[in-house]
Amino acid sequence: MRLPFHSSSILSFCALALALVSCKKEDGTGGTKGSDNLSKEIRIGLVDGAGAAPIVIAQTQQFFKKQGLNVSLVPHPSTTAVVQSLATGNLEAGMVYPADALEPRESTSLIIPHILARNSDVLSVSATAWKAMQPGLLRDLEGQTVRPVEAHALALLSQQGESLPFQITGPTATSTYALCYWLAAAGITPNFEGQGGPLEAALSTTPSSVAVRGIATTYLDQPADAVPIIVTTDIMRDLPETALATRAEWSTAHEAALIRLVAALLQAGDWLDASKENRRLGAEAMASTLGLDPTRTRAWLTETFRLAGQSSQRDDLQFSRQASAAPTHREAVWILSQMARWGQITPPASDDAYLAIVQRVFEPRFHLAAKALLGDQSVREADLTDLSPLEADLDGHRFAPSRPAAYLKTANVSAP
């Protein structure tokens, strides 16, 4: 993800970072104004996946400790479980899908101050399905498959009576929205009830550690017979896969701690993106810390892959480079629009209502204050709240984040 470089100082966020981090209470407790106390334990929930890497590295490379934080890591089976633990106060922060925080809930409001990972997912099909798709694939004048691969070949299979079962990592996973968008661009309706008729894809949830069968969307640790055909960044560029979330009330009461937490995660992301060797060491740290199979963690962090029919290797995963950790509003509006499109939420009443939700959840000030704390003044708030159109045209409609309500009216396929 690329944001413009700005040499001018960000005085307001520098001041915020300095005020919140250095203004100690006079009682000598080491806390800061706003009842903040940096020595208090911060419990962070995390789940399997590439997005856990910055959290693990911030702990094992002592970036949290160097920021004066007392952090403990709490593995969870799913992002849903992380959200529940946040709601009950059993966690101070946690790894979630962006949609988990954008979903309206009565009891707890979540904010996202930091993106953990972008571009970590691949859409794959079984080897059998890939072979059956060949007659319906678009070719160039030299007979090569046109990229990115579109789903029209699957639509032809469906019209011929073939079923289209897809396995997904979760209904709110960013990769699931990319999959649905990709299918819908070819006139295929995703069905979250696990049922599928003509021109419908039956979606079912499975943990990323379970081998998938048939047509699937998976993480980089694919089963042996999976054929990767398109990466999510070719469907919609630089979508945030996972994010750090906190309760809004906790972020208000512990601003200094949250700024330092984000600063440590930025340092961890820079460390992971610095070299292939660091990625390898990061994979080992994840396996050791979370008790995971090292083969899987290496697949997440170190292995390049080749899309079917291509000779070049791909490595699109980003943690911090090119400002990818910034909680930008453009992609958040797109995710929220997909939640509405597929019936997961009641569509907001207007464009302003969409933006109000995103502005409440995707909170830029902690990111900017953390960057200032680290001496980086290259990003402005306007860069994070920018609503210029996203680069995607698989369905013939360029998504304008400033007009999500109008986008839904033009969608050729929506929830069944």
Overview of this protein structure:
By secondary structure, the chain is an alpha/beta fold. It has 2 domains: 11-117 and 239-327 and 362-384, Periplasmic binding protein-like II (D-Maltodextrin-Binding Protein, domain 2, 3-Layer(aba) Sandwich); 122-237. 39% of the residues lie in helices and 16% in strands. It has 18 helices and 13 strands. The protein has helices spanning 11-22, 53-60, 63-66, 79-87, 98-102, 127-133, 152-159, 174-184, 232-235, 248-253, 255-274, 276-290, 294-301, 329-341, 351-361, 364-373, 381-384, 404-410, and strands at 31-32, 36-37, 41-46, 70-75, 93-96, 110-118, 122-126, 165-168, 189-191, 200-205, 215-218, 226-231, 240-247. The strands form 3 sheets. The protein has a 6-stranded mixed sheet with strand order 9-10-8-11-7-12. α11 (255-274) crosses α12 (276-290) and α14 crosses α15. The longest helix is centred in the middle third of the chain and has 20 residues, at 255-274. The radius of gyration is 21 Å and the shape is globular. It starts with 10 loop residues before the first helix and ends in a 6-residue tail after the last helix.
Structural descriptors:
416 residues, five-stranded mixed β-sheet, alpha/beta, 39% helix, 18 helices, D-Maltodextrin-Binding Protein, domain 2
